[in-house]
Amino acid sequence: MSTLSRFETPLLRVSRPVSACQRCRGAKVKCDGKLPACTACERAGRSAECSSASDLFAKGKERSYVASLETRVEKLEKQLVQAKARKASMNASGAQPWPSPESHAAPRVSSRGAQRKEASNVDDLVADFGFLSVNATARDFHGFSREMSFARLVLSTSSVLDMPKFVNHVLPQRHEITPLIKHYLENIHALYPFLSESRLFQSIDAVYQENGRHALPIDRWTTRLVLATAVASLSTKRGDTQYQDAVRHAAAALEEIETVVHPGSIVGIQAILQLVLYAMLNPRHFNSWYLIGLASRVMVDLGLHQDPPEELRLKHSELDMRLRVYNCVYALDRSISLVHIRAFSFTDDSASVTHPRQRVGSPDTSLVFLHDLNPAIHLSHLRQIESHAYQKLFQSRRPALEEPWPIISSSIEDMHIFCSKLPDQIKNPIKKLLRCEALYSSILILSPPDLDDDLTDYGKFLIFEYAVEYADLMSSVGSDAEQFAFYTSHDMLRASFVVKRLLALLLSDFALFFGSSVSRPPPQAPTSSGAPVLQQRTTGEMLSRAYNCLNLYDKILEYLELRFGYADPLKEFRMQSSDVRQLLKASYDKWNRNPPTTGHDHYTLAGPSMDRRFA
């Protein structure tokens, strides 16, 4: 059978009836939902009268889903007729169906143009069927009195608590939002640039000019959620003025969700990503893990995880936006999955995209990202390092690695190189955020399930040093100097994981870290790789650093609880660390009364730390 004949006689299957027809419903007999008429109506000779009407389909609007499909089929049939006519014309003239290498340039241009048109038609068809499939599938769920849309699907899966209702949604004065937009662009958009800056300002102008008379739903959605994210990032306590203003903006944006959030377009992905950023700052109302999962699947459905074929000849602006959206989905999916220690939405092997890091330092870097978006390029690089190690150590289906250290060592070395090469143009708060994430990922990489019982002394000391450095970097969280850093609820989860890992080591290996007063060679890496080298420290210094580090974590978790409303991590930490802190203090007092006269007996990193630029 030829390829064309398969399309002429497709095999159509209906997994479930859309709804029983009126005649079968009235007669209370089983309706198989066969189209254009069910079997029961055919046998009764009433095929022309077979129609469906229920609470989902009012009279006069029966089977609108089927009507949409029929319209699509008619369009495809016309295309097939045109294709047959072209083929017959070519056969009659003796022309070749595809231009040969000797053909002149004009037929090639025509063929490529036809290919681009065909690719565009296919994309439209896939997008339409994707939307129809979501709407059609939703009809099979019980408990809905009306058609389920993709936007309602997004809300139903990601909502934690319903957003409060407000009588009106008054916008602040235009001059009042100027510093908020500036803050968003410099500190949030710089990390996640999935919106077009020019399009953002056009949306703001449309919303504020003539009382928003000419503003589109996407303009109101974009403006409101940018303001909500900017204001929420400046909140210092859940329930304060900034928090309440952010909730009001987000509630106003949600009134446009039915029009804005839909599959089959980059705009739909951008809309979901805006919700992801807001959910990271306000986990009380939305679950960011579900949201980024939906955004990832829409992104894959559109093919943004693959470089587009050259035949499409997309504009530079279109290629730029495809790359931005893909890398933001990638970065957020990796970040959210890592902090929850869950599976990624898609693997690295399934994607084939030219990453921005491959252009860092090259003359055409500005073609991909603007100069002030360098943080996004480096964040994407960090996510690739994390993703590679996490998939190898945590998500591989193969048997446990006999020797995981080469992967661990290589990844940690890459983390150190990444931190050492952060450019001076990146603001210090953003650099500090990137280093904190690198430290968290390093500790996570050093903690794979299969290695927990066989972790070497060297690995344990690395975790200790990274946990201390992480606390030092995060110790200023909440201060005025750090108010423009993009701290989210995920930083609470990261800090909680790091200190739990540190406490577990101190409880299980207290003697290893603090029990000896005899000088001994420091533990070395299992291989002669570029992993960090350890140097010796006194027991007193180790005890003091550990005790002060736990006090810093108490302060960090207390602030993050105040800001994001997570009470459990702080309670668990104080309960689990109480005995350890008392033991550390008693051991330090004992050591201080009888300190050794010579020698060093414990260790820290001899090489540059991940925070060396903050020295």
From TrEMBL:
CDD domains found in the cross-reference section: fungal_TF_MHR (cd12148), GAL4 (cd00067)
Statement: the UniProt record of this protein carries the keyword DNA-binding: yes
UniProt keywords, alphabetically: DNA-binding, Metal-binding, Nucleus, Transcription, Transcription regulation, Zinc
Localization (cell): Nucleus
Region feature (Disordered): 84-117, 595-615
Boundaries of every Zn(2)-C6 fungal-type domain copy: 20-52
Organism of origin: Letharia lupina
Single GO MF annotation: DNA-binding transcription factor activity, RNA polymerase II-specific
UniProt keyword Metal-binding present: yes
InterPro entries from the UniProt entry: XnlR_reg_dom, Yeast_MetPath_Reg, Zn2-C6_fun-type_DNA-bd_sf, Zn2Cys6_DnaBD
Gene Ontology CC, one term: nucleus
Protein name: Zn(2)-C6 fungal-type domain-containing protein
